[in-house]
Amino acid sequence: MNVRARFPIPDSLFPMSGEFVFATAQYESGDWDSAPLVPANLIDSVARYTSLPIAPTGAIVALASDDLFRFPLVYLTGHLPVRFTDAERTNVRRFADRGGMLFVDDHNHDIDGAFHKTAVEELTRAVGPLSQLPNTHPIYSAFFKFPDGPPNTSHELNGWGDNLVHSHLLAAMRGDRVAVLYSNKDYSSEWGYHPDNKRFLSIDNTKFGVNIIVYALTR
Amino acid sequence: MGEHALRVIAMAAIATLLWRAVRPPVASGVDVVRGDLQRALTRWTLSPATDMRVVLDAAPDPRTRDWLRALARAGGAFRWSSSRPIGAAAVVAEPAAEPNGVTRVRLASANGEAVSVADDAGTIDTLPRGGAREMELGAIAGAVRASGATFTATSDPRDSVLLRPVLVLGAAGWESKFTIAALEERGWRVASRVRVAPKIDVTQGLLGSIDTARYAAVIVLDSTAGPSSQEIIRYARAGGGVILGGSASRGGAFVGIAPGRVGARIAGVAGAVASAAPRTGLGGFPVSSPGADAVVLESRDGVAMIAARRLDAGRVMQVGYDETWRWRMAGGDESAAAHREWWSRLVGAVAYAPLVPRGPGVRSIDETPLASLVAALGPPTPLDAGLVAHGDNARITLMLFILVAACLIAEWASRRLRGAR
């Protein structure tokens, strides 16, 4: 089925000049829409901490669509195995080559899970091998400071799943810029709640999401 | 009978050759030279003539031209003519104010003759009908030569440019990101101050006072640079290059130095970023009412989108486009490279780029052969009949010799055919 035809994006939702729109990638395989609350939560955080003009609602963009190139930062997540179509793979490669940044988060928290293995395979085929991103990378200081690298999620800390704390994120680079940022820390679960519930947290756990967006918009 | 006629013709031709060899010069005291000038130059130097006339069939090389000029200034009358029109041509090779070491070659040729552009490594390009051409060469070997049938123009970059970093100021957003990326990918060193929140900037590179000792150009993408406006204006007046993007010059801070006012925003043509004219797909703020000293560099449907002006020792450019990142992301396969090149050219056009001599060395430069010839020797005089006749000596002599030989061979052949000795 043509996912673009299923979810056409009206022109009114395309970003106005200077306005940032948080876009979620829609792909043929797997469950691309497994974290529907993350966009709203990150949009809330960006609006809360920065003065960036940001669209109040996110957009959903098909990876195989030319619309992908209207959103230079795209979030991709899921639980299930990922297999890109040829069109998706080609688009991801062009997207990375032109300066776009794809943020991929494994919505599972496990070792060598189906999403992780297949997504890494597909991304490697599309944009080249992923390697560990140093914890001193500018993305960890783009707005908030994370001197120890990527913040841990509650799922890592409470032993849920594989009882493993992932110490690094992975990335595929274009020059000195991150083209694909890959996380298997399950931020999609960590950030998947209604923004109003942020008030119940002693520390806002979406701050690293703000860093990712600010990094994408500035580097 | 025929053999007698042939012998008579041969004798007449020999007599003519003899007369031409011993006849007096065209005019007393007149020394006419055509073709190879070296022997005549030596002769005139050792024994100056009272009236020197030169018939050229091509622009002489600089050494010959300078020698002729010295003789002309040393006394005696000097005139020059050309046996055919010498093409007016000019070539100049100079370092582009861009970081990738590009040499920009500009060529113009007036009379429609084919021009070949070459360096020491070989031919670079050919213009079958002359005309004007600008080309960017990543590397050149030796001097650049533009050669036609009647001229050879030569140029050699005498200087290199000193390029300092570019400072980019703007709010966080795709335009800031991709402007910085385009310039960095093209080789510019970029310092940036990108506003993320009130009093919170993401910075990159060495930031300091804005002056020509630190930055080659300053790009102001929006109004966030307002607090630095006076510093930026001083920088421009001192020789710096400033690019005002989008609506940066709207209201207050930069109105006084902008080439024009900021017009109402226009939208891009849907889908055009992937077309052959990609910038028609970009929205932006046109440059309305360009000032008297402004030069419009790019227009769309009669509306100025890019204009520039001089500001004391510096330059200010107003670029109406405020979302060029769409061109890079959503354009055709070459859009990323084209976007880089476009931004780099804009910066190069205004950049403060002091020239640095490449060092001593004798370089053979003759960028405008005909103009230099006229400047050295004055304008050409018409080619009079006497000069033509004198100038045609060699050809007539050759023809007479051929005639003599043909007649004598024909007579000999005729005699042999009828058995006579």
Secondary-structure content class of chain A:
alpha/beta
Structural class of chain B: alpha/beta
Please compute the radius of gyration of chain A using only Cα atoms.
16 Å
Biggest beta sheet attributes of chain B: 8 strands, mixed
What does the main sheet of chain A amount to? 7 strands, mixed
CATH A-level architecture of chain A: 3-Layer(aba) Sandwich
Percent range for β-strand residues of chain B: 25-35%
Total helix count of chain A? 7
Notable features of this structure?
heterodimer, A: 219 residues, Rossmann fold, 7-stranded mixed β-sheet, 7 helices, B: 421 residues, alpha/beta, 28% strand, elongated
Brief synopsis:
The complex is a heterodimer of chains A (219) and B (421). Chain A is built from 7 helices and 7 strands.
Outline the fold blueprint.
The complex is a heterodimer of chains A (219) and B (421).
Chain A: H1 3-6, E1 23-26, H2 38-49, E2 59-62, E3 73-78, H3 86-97, E4 101-106, H4 114-127, E5 131-132, H5 154-157, E6 170-174, E7 177-183, H6 187-190, H7 207-218
Parallel strand pairs in A: 1-2, 1-3, 3-4, 4-7
Antiparallel strand pairs in A: 5-6, 6-7
Helix pairs in contact in A: 2-7, 3-4
Chain B: H1 2-22, E1 30-34, H2 38-46, E2 51-56, H3 62-73, E3 77-82, E4 89-95, E5 103-109, E6 115-119, E7 122-127, E8 131-137, E9 144-147, E10 152-155, E11 159-161, E12 166-171, H4 174-185, E13 190-197, E14 200-204, E15 217-220, H5 229-237, E16 241-245, E17 261-262, E18 287-288, E19 295-300, E20 303-311, E21 314-319, H6 325-330, H7 335-350, E22 355-357, H8 369-377, H9 385-391, H10 393-417
Parallel strand pairs in B: 1-2, 2-3, 12-13, 12-15, 15-16, 16-21
Antiparallel strand pairs in B: 4-5, 5-8, 6-7, 6-9, 9-10, 11-22, 13-14, 17-18, 19-20, 20-21
Helix pairs in contact in B: 1-10, 2-3, 3-8, 4-7
